[in-house]
Amino acid sequence: MFPFSGWGLGCLRLCLLRVWTGEATGRWACGTCQSRLYGSGGSQPEVSRSDPARGILKEWALLVSPFGRLRARLPCHLTVRPLDPLTYPDGDRVLVTVSGVEGGARALAGLQVNYDEAQKEVTIVADVIDHQASVEVNAPLKFDLNIQSSGSGCVKVQNIECDNCKIETEQGTSILQSVKSQKLHVQTTGGKVICLGTVYGDIDIRASDKSTVTVDKLQGSSINISTEDGLLKVKYLYTESSFLSSAAGDITLGSVHDSSSGCLNALAQQGAIDVYVSELGKVELKVHKGSILVKVASSLQAYLQLSGKEIDMNSDVHVEEMNEAHRDDGVIITGFLNQTSKHEKWIKADAPKGTVRFRSQSWFQSLKLQD
Ligand SMILES: *[C@@H]1O[C@H](CO)[C@@H](O)[C@H](O)[C@H]1NC(C)=O
Ligand SMILES: CC(=O)N[C@H]1CO[C@H](CO)[C@@H](O)[C@@H]1O
């Protein structure tokens, strides 16, 4: 199973718990006030009913352009989901709710929610807010997102389809679930990045320090992911061109389908690369200090160049014109996997200080091994 998929549930549970706390203390008196919608000016949102049953402390409803964007700068948890299309067929609202805050409305004094009609931009900004607060936004499906969370604030984006999605966190986890964005940029200086379901787009994920990146399935023409000291794990990767790198973490790629003209580059300074290649153009794997395991579909045809301190190839791997050369303290094996002619598809794996293991296996086996 996917190792971190439990996190979201854990967080949800935490939120619910806080809701019940609030309810028990009866902090929110007014459960039935109507929320009003100020539309025309577009600038003053409104506001505000507390709904103890749902644990909501404050709520805004803004009339917006369906093709605007959201800019959030928050030190707490933020979830973005699409508006319910049945309730809002015109897709022209942004609904913001805040829950999970101790200390009632006063604790929200620093939170500003605004819509700039000229910029078509909703801003949700707070410098200081209870870091246990949880802000939920329901936005038009096509809304662009520009989100920065500070401290331990987590960001979760689900089912959005936009042109640009940019998420930056410090220590907080970023969860993207079934997101389609032409350009998707995620950056964190210490939080986990988790992609669930399929995430589509040109994707750039940069995770520094000990941040890990774990991905179910990414699909896009260009995908770049880097970690520093954390695991980079991708279960399925469908791409024309991908650059994956890690300074000191391992890189694990369940199944890579790049198109026959595409390329996959995975580079680890220190660690291990483990990859299953089912279709490919050019695959280049390098670990400066560590080992590489390459598993290929048994039908794969490619030119091979494997170099390392040691090469370990199963006897059932069928290499034509195999050549083995020894250099200072290593070995280089070249040859053609299942064919003799085509040079335009290749796999290069280089582990100068470690072992390159090469295995042929069925796609079915590769699936079993992943779970
Ligand atoms: C990925 O990196 C390559 C090479 O640095 C760059 O050309 C490409 O635009 C990047 N793609 C994304 C989606 O950031
Ligand atoms: C198409 C083809 O020749 N496939 C063979 C490739 O090599 C593997 C072993 O590495 C065989 O099992 C396949 O039958």
Summarize the structure.
The chain is mainly beta. The protein has helices at residues 6-25, 363-370, and strands at residues 46-47, 56-63, 69-74, 77-82, 93-99, 112-116, 121-125, 134-139, 144-149, 155-158, 161-169, 174-177, 180-188, 193-207, 213-227, 232-246, 251-279, 282-297, 302-313, 319-327, 330-337, 346-361. It has 2 domains: 9-279, Pectate Lyase C-like (3 Solenoid); 299-361, no CATH class.
CATH class of the largest domain: Mainly Beta
Provide the structure class: mainly beta
**Average of the residue pLDDT scores:** 82
Strand content: over 45%
Describe the main β-sheet briefly: 22 strands, mixed
Shape: elongated
H/E element order: HEEEEEEEEEEEEEEEEEEEEEEH
What compounds sit in this structure? Answer: 2-acetamido-2-deoxy-beta-D-glucopyranose
Helix content: under 10%
| Uncertain residue segments | 1-44
How many distinct domains? Answer: 2
Distance between the first and last residues' Cα: 5 Å
Tally of helical segments? 2
Instruction: Tell me how many strands there are.
Output: 22
| CATH third-level topology of the largest domain | Pectate Lyase C-like
Gross CATH architecture of the largest domain: 3 Solenoid
Over the alpha carbons, how many angstroms does the gyration radius reach?
25 Å
Protein name: Family with sequence similarity 185 member A
Keywords: Signal
Signal peptide: 1-26
